[in-house]
Amino acid sequence: MSNAHSNKATGPIPDNAATKTADYFDERLGIYGAAKKNLRKVFPDHWSFMLGEVALYSFIIILLTGVWLTLFFKPSMTEVVYDGSYVPLQGIHMSEAYASTLDISFDIRGGLAIRQIHHWAALIFVSSLFVHMFRIFFTGAFRKPREMNWLFGFLLLVLAMVNGFTGYSLPDDLLSGTGLRIAEGVVLAIPLVGTYLQFFLFGGEFPGTDIVPRLFTIHVLLVPAIMVGLLTVHLILVFYHKHTQFPGAGRTEKNVVGLPLLPVYTAKAGGFFFIVFGITAALGGLVQINPIWSYGPYHPGQITAGSQPDWYIGFLEGSLRIMPNWETNLWGHTISWNVLIPSLVVPGVMFTFIAAYPWLEAWVTGDKREHHLLDRPRNVPVRTGLGAAWIAMYLVLWIGGGNDIIATHFHLSINSITWTMRVLFFVAPVLAFVVARRIAMALQRRDKDKVLHGRETGIIKKLPHGEFIEVHEPLDAERLHFLTSHEQPTPAALPPAVDENGVARKLKPGEKLRVRLSRWYFDEKVEKPTAEEYKEITSGHGHH
Amino acid sequence: MKKLSARRRHPLAALVVLLFALAATGGLYAAFAPAKPAQAEGAATALSDIEEGKKLYLSGCSSCHGLNGQGSSDGPSLVGVGAAAVDFQVMTGRMPMQQQGPQAPRKPVVFTQEQSDQLGAFIASLGAGPAVPREEDYALEEGNNAMIAEGGELFRTNCSQCHNFAGEGGALPDGKFAPSLVDVDPKHIYEAMLTGPQNMPSFPDTIMPPEQKKAIVTYITGVTKDEPNPGGLGLGRLGPVSEGLFVWIFGLGFLIAAAIWIAARTPKARTK
Ligand code: HEM
């Protein structure tokens, strides 16, 4: 393709095999046109824009290694007696699923490495999704026209967590089974339909023999297929909307400044793929993960201390662990608040908030314009604070999920950790909000200072009359633009209570709330320096 | 030397000195006591052992466990706990207890094996209880694979809920914990099962026959302790928590560093 591309410029196209092949495909697929249009696409360059790439690459690694695993994994609960090469389990009765995972680990060449790469890649995948999402959130990249893509990304995150959980449950080891047991408890706690749903999912009493084959289909077929579909749409939309960019000289809502897809961006992205693959493979080869042989096969009568899910389900585990043991009995039916609230209500609210945030913010700000320039997080302090609060709440739950490990390693009482987390669940988000918002404001103030008084150079000068001053150097125009180009919306206000005819005005429902929220977002601000201010200070006596 | 002088001011220093003194007196006494004519094993030895044990007991233990082992507000009754309990408690350094806490932890041992046996003999004379296991009860059977597998099954059924799948230990309510089994002597593992120290249930022979205990000991010592991690670095064998921390700090940490590095390498002329 690049061949065809460059030849256009230099002269007649030589009639070699490559050109012929390319021509063959062009006549049937129109690749020249597509390439011309797309290869000239420009990508802005910032490290945080590569977080999504980490997600993409680790997903590819998961798919490749996952397909390999399906060649050897047997999703069956048929009981077998283990006779493989792992001595401590020889002669033990176990499911075929567990035995085949042992075989992958010990008797199939390279099996353990692939399993471990698959699992590490899954952990990296979900972590990269979170940081990718946080990047989008804090820079406001979810604003119009990208709300739908935010939603697709959000669905990918949820599906990734679901698929991770189903994968974790497949090998039928002690931790898998314990996790499924908890999942069963959660299903059972759903009022009215819980019991039916549980029977439907498990095909009978827990654990039964249906669940592992069913999970297998979900894990390798259903969810990955949906994910590949969503991912494709996600990436097409990124292409179609074009990538956002940070403000800067020459960057507007209408252009994209960056690197051409070919060759620079492709080279960078390709190189990065190998770095991601390299790090994942190094982890898989060097660091043990999910040693199912130590856990032993699942048996409903067994359990181990340190039963935890993979990290991305850890917040649910923590939520369950710190919840007080509340139940009510209504007409002979138990409502298990102790399971319902932590495993359905809390994550339900937290994740719905994420999914809905672009629309929430648009409603509050009333902003219906398109945005292709990103916000610097400091310039939208309330949003930044909200993000910090969400992360704080998530972290508290996450830490709660490891309360036993923390207790044993720091010689603390597990009860006091649990109580601390209960309090922090409510306090930490508020604190995080306040602190993050304050920091954002302070950074804005510093920016303002820099604009008006220049950059501190660290050079101390002694004036003739003996005073010491630090020399400030004015910023260059590019920097000045960068620091002052953000918008500062004015908060919404209620219209006068009566209209021009003296008739009491009818407010749209929720308008009062909207105005209040808008004030909360935008009332308190660090006014940007005005051009007059700037002129006055820079032309006059200068530094102080 | 420096370390020692720094520790002199530790609040427990006085206690340690006292214990050393006590132990030394006991040792000296044993050394200088009129040598008895060689005795046949049996009742006579036991009798002198009981005597010695009583002396040690009165100086080191009675303040908490009462003059006749009947117990006090500071320590439970020792009547009927048996020599196995004493051997376990004393030879893992748990007793004599030093500090009231959620649970008496493992400490450096202050008595010799002989003194511990004497203490055991004395406590056993107060009321019958499990005796110290004999070596063949817990001696490892190298290469007995069936026993290892059985031990693993029993371990996962009876022990891992508190001690973790790899014997790394786990938390119990109110600051109590099931300790790591990684460095525990086979004998003490056996005794722990026999006597059920503190919050651990006991597994007397009626519940768990000696063969099964031996299998568990074999599994713990042979597998959880000595097995290399086939997958690479073991991360403390704590399960998914340490894996999760690791992936964030090293996995994602490296990747973000790589992203920053790559993004910084930009052909400058093109960005403008
Ligand atoms: C098409 C995509 C995928 C295929 C074909 C696939 C295939 C498999 C298979 C066959 C297993 C069971 C064998 C074994 O682990 O030992 C497995 C396990 C697992 N999978 Fe996947 N997988 C896919 C995607 C994912 C995704 C997206 C995630 C998470 C985000 C994931 C996370 C896991 C985990 C955590 C295990 C646990 C088992 C272990 O420790 O090895 N997989 N996968």
From TrEMBL, chain A:
Cofactor(s) required for function per UniProt: heme
Record EC number: 7.1.1.8
Pfam families: Cytochrom_B_N_2
A molecular-function term among this protein's GO annotations: oxidoreductase activity
Location of this chain's protein in the cell: Cell membrane
PROSITE patterns hit by this protein: CYTB_NTER (PS51002)
GO biological process, one term: respiratory electron transport chain
Name used for this protein in its record: Cytochrome bc1 complex cytochrome b subunit
Record InterPro entries: Cyt_b/b6_N (IPR005797), Cytb/b6-like_sf (IPR027387), Di-haem_cyt_TM (IPR016174)
TM spans (from-to): 54-73, 119-138, 150-170, 182-204, 216-240, 261-287, 339-360, 380-399, 419-440
Enzyme class: translocase
Catalytic activities: a quinol + 2 Fe(III)-[cytochrome c](out) = a quinone + 2 Fe(II)-[cytochrome c](out) + 2 H(+)(out)
Topological relation to the membrane, as annotated: Multi-pass membrane protein
Keywords: Cell membrane, Electron transport, Heme, Iron, Membrane, Metal-binding, Respiratory chain, Translocase, Transmembrane, Transmembrane helix, Transport
rRNA-binding in keyword set: no
Alphabetical list of Gene3D superfamilies matching this protein: Cytochrome Bc1 Complex, Chain C
Domain Cytochrome b/b6 N-terminal region profile, first and last residues per copy: 21-247
From TrEMBL, chain B:
Post-translational modification: Binds 2 heme c groups covalently per subunit.
Molecular function per GO: heme binding; iron ion binding; quinol-cytochrome-c reductase activity
Annotated positions binding heme c 1: C61, C64, H65
Pfam families with a match to the protein in the record: Cytochrom_C, Cytochrome_CBB3
One Gene Ontology term, aspect cellular component: plasma membrane
Enzyme class (EC, first level): translocase
Quaternary state and interactors: The cytochrome bc1 complex is composed of a cytochrome b (QcrB), the Rieske iron-sulfur protein (QcrA) and a diheme cytochrome c (QcrC) subunit.
Protein name: Cytochrome bc1 complex cytochrome c subunit
Species assigned in the record: Yinghuangia soli
Native organism taxonomy: Bacteria, Bacillati, Actinomycetota, Actinomycetes, Kitasatosporales
